[in-house]
Amino acid sequence: MTTYLPLLSDPTGPRHGSRSRMTCHYRCGDACDKPLPNTTDNPEFSDIATRAIARRAVLGGAAAGAGALVLGLPSPAAAAPAAAPAQRRAGATMGTVRFSPVPPNVRDRVTVPAGFRSDIVISWGDPILPGTPAFDVDAQTPARARRQFGYNNDFLAVLPLRRDTAVMFSNHEYTNPELMFPSDGDYDEDTKKRIEMASHGLSVVKLRRGGRAGSWKVAGLDNPYNRRFHTSTPFRVDGPAAGTRRMRTSADPQGRTVLGTLNNCSGGVTPWGTVLSGEENIDQYFEASEGTLPAEYAASYARYGFQAEAERGWGSIDPRFDLSEEPHEAFRFGWIVEVDPFDKKSTPRKHTMLGRFKHEGANVVVSDSGHAVAYMGDDEKGEYLYKFVSADRVRTARTAKAKRQNMRLLTRGTLYVGRLTDEAPDLAPEYDGVGRWVPLCSDTESFVEGMSVADVLIDTRLAADKVAPTRMDRPEDVDVNPVNGRVYACLTNNDERGSTDPVDEANPLAESMVRDSLGSELEPANGNRNGYVLEMVARNGDHDRPVFDWRLMLVCGDPDAPETYFAGYDPDEVSPISCPDNVAFDVEGNLWVSTDGNKLGSNDGLFRVPTAGARRGQVLQFLTVPPGAETCGPVITRDQKTVFVAVQHPGEDDGATFETPISTWPTGTFPRPSVVTAYQG
Fold first, then answer.
1. Per-residue model confidence (pLDDT) at position 60
2. 62 pLDDT higher than 80
3. Half-sphere exposure of residue 546, counting CA atoms within 13 Å on the CB side?
4. What pLDDT, on the 0 to 100 scale, is given for residue 456?
5. pTM to 2 decimals?
6. Measured CA distances, 647 to 477, 491, 508 (Å)
7. Are 269 and 362 in contact (CB under 8 A)?
8. Does residue 116 surpass a pLDDT of 70?
9. Whether the Cβ atoms of residue 624 and residue 605 lie closer than 8 Å to each other
10. E-assigned strand segments in 486-640
11. pLDDT for 5
């Protein structure tokens, strides 16, 4: 039986899909209301997938209606399937434990299956450096914010120290001032902006095990690990673009030191024990006081979405965010950042060799030949998938010298962009095709006509446009399964697919059906509203190779809808899933998918999906987060007993304020982004 859930926003409905206007404004600077940055005629992934699906239908393919371009979604959210309750048996891990899936819901809490617990580890404003006063929402200052756990925690990494301790790394993507500051407080607008600036960035926090098996808590403030990175923290720039003309500013004439990191979304842990963090929607922080952007860089600014006006208004308090004053400062953001969380004296790095775009994150695997291979997604409608292969090999020794050498691996190598076709690798009845990684540049040579190496790396989007890669539906987290070696990419959604973005072979949905704002009648809606999970298989398992096979493992949405697909698994036995964002893996090779912007009427959540065996494709919801929140992280601890999740922007919705929130989690009075654990107990 189908369950219909109410929309969370006002009766007129959200602005784009299920996203509130507040989310669009602060997450990505209303990117959907701006001209689409990618105006090329490069092929669309949905065109490729459509031809692949049609071919499979002729061959006796899997899904009813799979060859159609206009597809129906009959309900906002199907009820979750029944399953056995949690089994607390010796040796059970997060990959093997059976649980009753959490049904779709709009509860103002973190909901976990029966037999599991959820604890808060740390929240926005909690002190992480010694001598910092306890959080007081009425007495915030920029100085305090630079010593506290930042706002809107996104990517997480939990790195073991000794048996009962670990170091946790977190991104702080952006801020929601309406939810941060009481309207009757004593904050003037400039002070608010400076507190917001200090609340962006990264945190490193030492943890220790709690009193219950599977629980974790902050280990205290006086230790050699806790650290805060913010908009005043120096970052070193390396790679071929470092020091070049467009990386220089009046404050940094050498072009090798940048203050701060912005809009850090997802990331990854390297094989040598450092953390990578992706700078994403950086355009929203810059403005031009003269009213127009500098003409010299008009094409570059346009391709990345920069405009003369920016609602955040940071240029009025810091001239480096005013492009009329500092036209090069924008080129110093949009990179992959590397941090050594074990060395408090280390300087974080921005790696220009990995290209500049709206990075969701980066994940590294060691190829058969020993090279470091990083997979990345550019998170915007119609953008591309990327891969980097290092010139040098990974040092396997566990020494300080080997680690220093490995931290230079991402400065030399070759950057590629992905092109997907519907050429069949004979994987029927999967929706599949063949892909190729097209080289853009090495650290010494550009492969794009008319562009230098530095040009390719600073204007990676413009360079990629010239080699005809495939336009994807918001490629977000791209990660390698350590068990089967396959690469999984979240393609979150694109409600303009079929209109602004025509369909192609691997982005097949041009139209779907959704419930109206009252949840009653079906109405047509544009595009790929619920997203896909793409599975890529390197030829012969070698990530160095330029050719790979691809398939759509999941076509997300309501299991009752004919267009949905769950790797061939029975749709009557899966949870509804919408808008996949980030992924993690357990030791069994299961895929854990977190969602952002659920369009089926439920809060966002975290799902476990087997990637092999008889249950491959069985999507089961493990938890949900409060209204307005996004499920981020996630992390399965090395002992496989605990799931860490970052609950980002709880209560983010149109019209919500500090005094009138739609969520009061976890304080009971106002929302605070927080990191939580879930475990059996």
1. 35
2. no
3. 10
4. 98
5. 0.89
6. 17, 20, 31
7. no
8. yes
9. yes
10. 487-491, 511-515, 522-526, 532-538, 547-555, 565-566, 580-585, 591-595, 605-609, 620-624, 630-636
11. 26
